[in-house]
Design a protein that fits this description.
The protein is 8% helix and 47% strand. With 99 residues, it is mostly beta strands. The protein has one domain.
Length: 99
């Protein structure tokens, strides 16, 4: 499960807000996951799909509430940092219910 948090940190998604000049985070957006990177160790990462880490292919990203949700099992990811670079919204986060 630790890897899931890291995978979500690195997920690459296509969101409806891409067409806007700058996404301000004032409303939640639906994002389709194109690929994820699962990293058990910083030097060992595996590229996969949403199914690789048991996620739905569409997630709700709510930057204002700092949450990513939409997982079939109800898991959520807390957004810990937000950045804008090269015209992309970059999110970093961690899984809240790691056991």
């Amino acid at each position: 499960m630790r890897a899931l948090g890291l995978a979500c940190v690195l997920l690459v998604s296509v969101c409806g807000a891409q067409a806007a000049a700058v996404y301000d985070g004032s409303s939640a957006m639906q994002c389709a996951i194109k690929s994820v990177m699962v990293c058990d160790d910083p030097s060992i990462c595996v590229r996969g799909t949403a199914q690789t880490v048991s996620l739905l292919s569409i997630l709700t990203v709510d930057v204002g509430r700092s949450l990513v949700s939409g997982d079939a099992s109800g898991r959520t990811i807390r957004i810990t940092a937000v950045g804008h670079g090269a015209g992309r919204l970059m999110l970093h986060g961690e899984q809240l219910d790691v056991g």
